[in-house]
Amino acid sequence: MELIYSLAIGIFFACGVWLLLRPRTFQVILGLALLSYATNLFIFAMGRLTLDRPPLIDPNVVADASLYDDPIPQALVLTAIVIGFATTALFLVMLIASRGFTGTDHVDGVEKGE
């Protein structure tokens, strides 16, 4: 399971970097989104990949930390998803405005043939 999870993170990261290096603005935005997905999956993996474990510690039972999930990475990823969604929406608005001002969606504002 960890190998498949690591490969998924690596593929998301590689595709995100490849899209970041593209000349079109929309591809750059998609690359940033894929990089944020890879980062979220990585942070989520830091909380250990376990199944059928309770997320919270019962105060009435003697606690063994190896029997519980870590809720901090889950909270960090949830916050990162909200911030990433807002940032992507802002970038899309900037893309539309830039396209209206320059007439192109290239990152540097110049078409290749010009």
UniProtKB/TrEMBL annotation:
The keyword Transmembrane applies. The keyword Cytoplasm does not apply. Keywords: Cell membrane, Membrane, Transmembrane, Transmembrane helix. InterPro entries: CPA3_antiporter_subunitC, NUOK/Mnh_C1-like. It is a multi-pass membrane protein. It comes from the Bacteria. The chain crosses the membrane at residues 6-21, 28-51, 71-97. It holds the Pfam family Oxidored_q2. It is found in: Cell membrane. Coiled coil: none annotated. Belongs to the CPA3 antiporters (TC 2.A.63) subunit C family. PANTHER family: ANTIPORTER SUBUNIT MNHC2-RELATED (PTHR34583:SF2). This is Na+/H+ antiporter subunit C. It comes from Steroidobacter flavus.
